[in-house]
Amino acid sequence: MDVAHHPARWADASASSPFALCGRTALVTGAGTGIGRAISLALAAAGADLILLSEQENLDATAVGAAEMGSKVDCLRLDLGRQDRLSRIKEAFDGNSVDILVNNAGLIRRSPADEFTNEDWHDVIEVNLHAAFELSRAAGRGMLERGYGNIINIASLLSFQGGVFVSSYTASKHAIVGLTKALANEWAGRGVNVNAIAPGYVATATTEDLRADPRRAGEISARIPAGRWADPEDIAGAAVFLASPAAAYVHGHVLVVDGGWLAR
Ligand SMILES: NC(=O)c1ccc[n+]([C@@H]2O[C@H](COP(=O)([O-])OP(=O)(O)OC[C@H]3O[C@@H](n4cnc5c(N)ncnc54)[C@H](OP(=O)(O)O)[C@@H]3O)[C@@H](O)[C@H]2O)c1
């Protein structure tokens, strides 16, 4: 039997837990804040080493927390909207193989569609979609060579719904689901798992404007069957699962973690 097609057998610690990530290196984008930070710490708790990437100087807390759990941690500050992003990443981490890629970095711009600027359109698509594709292609090549790897894209409820005043964000989050399925379709047979997580409403900087608007925040809260917004940590377990040998046969899936919003 070819072990490359049975990832449950190649994790060092898979015998002790199907969710163990010992011996694997995860690259997480947008790792200094919110969901990316929570996912990074959860991957570290499961035993992964980390490569953390963010735009601002804000990775210290994540890096220290992960190192305290025994992870080897590398950090890079980089604007993923830059066209030279891949060469910057390769320069910094040459020789480091990425076993798990979490395309978490994302931005949102709010404006009515008829007033939406080209800049707000392109900036969002560049980071939320183009950078995610380029990183997936670059990390995916190594994964395909080795015959294993896990890519996790962070989608959204706006991968399924239209949203209000966020046309470029909604377009990017629909597209990231399409990309997830396209890559899964090509790479599932070669040992690489590509999946997505669609978080519901999470209390982070991305939703600060929404939470500051009592009417909108109230409408949203009233619709969530779980009765509360998510904390970033509510999303992290799904990432550990999708990164782990337990998800070996999960391909092209969008795991919705929304407190029941879409079930309503
Ligand atoms: N909060 C929600 O309700 C929700 C729901 C569904 C999906 N999501 C998605 O979850 C992901 C994380 O968002 P969040 O809610 O955790 O908000 P957040 O704390 O604002 O996180 C966004 C992250 O993206 C990074 N980022 C943005 N632009 C970047 C750029 N040009 N280059 C490099 N990194 C960049 C930010 O890095 P810096 O801090 O360094 O700028 C930040 O760490 C996003 O993809 C978002 O769309 C969020």
Structure explained in plain terms:
The protein is an alpha/beta fold and 264 residues long. The chain has one domain (3-254): Rossmann fold, CATH 3.40.50. Helix content is 40%, strand content 14%. The chain contains 8 helices and 7 strands; from the N terminus they run E-H-E-H-E-H-E-H-E-H-E-H-H-H-E. It has helices at residues 34-45, 60-68, 85-93, 118-146, 167-187, 208-211, 214-223, 233-243; strands spanning 25-29, 49-54, 73-77, 100-103, 149-154, 192-199, 254-257. It has a 7-stranded parallel β-sheet, sandwiched between helices. It is globular, with a radius of gyration of 18 Å. The chain starts with 24 loop residues before the first strand and ends in a 7-residue tail after the last strand. Bound molecules: NADP nicotinamide-adenine-dinucleotide phosphate. NADP nicotinamide-adenine-dinucleotide phosphate binds at residues 29-30, 32-36, 54-56, 58, 79-81, 104-107, 127, 154, 156, 199, 201-202, 204-207.
Write out key terms for the chains shown.
40% helix; seven-stranded parallel sheet; Rossmann fold; 264 residues; binds NADP nicotinamide-adenine-dinucleotide phosphate; 8 helices; disordered N terminus; alpha/beta
Measured as a percent range, the helix fraction is 25-40%
Strand order of the largest sheet: 3-2-1-4-5-6-7
CATH-defined architecture: 3-Layer(aba) Sandwich
Q: What's the rounded overall pLDDT mean? A: 94
**Overall number of structural domains:** 1
> Could you please say which CATH topology applies here?
Rossmann fold
What ligands can be seen in this structure? NADP nicotinamide-adenine-dinucleotide phosphate
**Major sheet characteristics:** 7 strands, parallel
CATH top level assignment:
Alpha Beta
- End-to-end Cα distance: 44 Å
Order of helices and strands: EHEHEHEHEHEHHHE
Structural shape: globular
Protein structure class: alpha/beta
Looking at this structure, what is the CATH superfamily? Answer: NAD(P)-binding Rossmann-like Domain
Number of helices: 8
